[in-house]
């Protein structure tokens, strides 16, 4: 199984495509829906689902285009069930980019459980702090964590947006993510990939926690 990082949109939000053969799942199609659809077609990939680590505007901008193009379902956490339709909640009204919306998700996630989609299996971790419905998807087979805006290389998610909470974010990282195997690759919503052990050793936001 392979994953590809595709930075999209004005904030270079990382969309990830995790593929196995010709089947794939898409994490956080944040913008440039036509570009993403073309890339999928050029690589002869058949998407099975869109998985959202959270529903901030920069992670959902291409949701509707990709959903309709490939006729696939969207998954989001229950705490952000209303955010796709609401530009006040998803934050798009705050940044002068116009209202960014999508239709309601097809599947609402609320338990920390195993999620199986086609050949892909994930362990779900609810990791609030950056946003109330932030999810991290642990792909154990590939040793990778799709972490959204919870944990970055040398940094952590911002907590100054509605529903953000700095201490809650630190708790999520410490109790959920740092408990994963140290060699786990962390695939963040912005910037380069990192690893659990690298962030344990050098992330200044986690030192002394």
Explain the overall architecture:
This protein is α/β, with parallel strands linked by helices and 209 residues long. It has one domain: 4-Layer Sandwich (Metallo-beta-lactamase, Chain A). Strand 2 and strand 3 form a beta hairpin. Helix 1 runs parallel beside helix 3. The protein is globular and about 45 Å long. The termini are far apart. The model has no long low-confidence stretch (mean pLDDT 96). This is Metallo-beta-lactamase domain-containing protein. GO terms for molecular function: hydrolase activity; metal ion binding. Keywords: Hydrolase, Metal-binding, Zinc. InterPro entries: MBL_Glyoxalase_II, Metallo-B-lactamas, RibonucZ/Hydroxyglut_hydro.
Topology:
Elements: E1 2-8, E2 13-20, E3 23-27, H1 33-42, E4 46-51, H2 57-60, H3 63-70, E5 74-77, H4 87-90, E6 107-109, E7 114-117, E8 120-126, E9 135-139, E10 144-148, E11 151-152, E12 155-156, H5 166-177, E13 185-188, E14 194-195, H6 196-202
Parallel strand pairs: 3-4, 4-5, 5-6, 10-13
Antiparallel strand pairs: 1-2, 2-3, 7-8, 8-9, 9-10, 11-12, 13-14
Brief descriptors of the model:
209 residues, alpha/beta, 22% helix, globular, six-stranded mixed β-sheet, 14 strands, Metallo-beta-lactamase, Chain A
What is the structure about, briefly put?
With 209 residues, the protein is α/β, with parallel strands linked by helices. The protein contains six helices and 14 strands. The relative contact order is 0.14.
Look at the structure and give the CATH class: Alpha Beta
Describe the main β-sheet briefly: 6 strands, mixed
How much β-strand is present in the residues? 25-35%
CATH superfamily membership: Ribonuclease Z/Hydroxyacylglutathione hydrolase-like
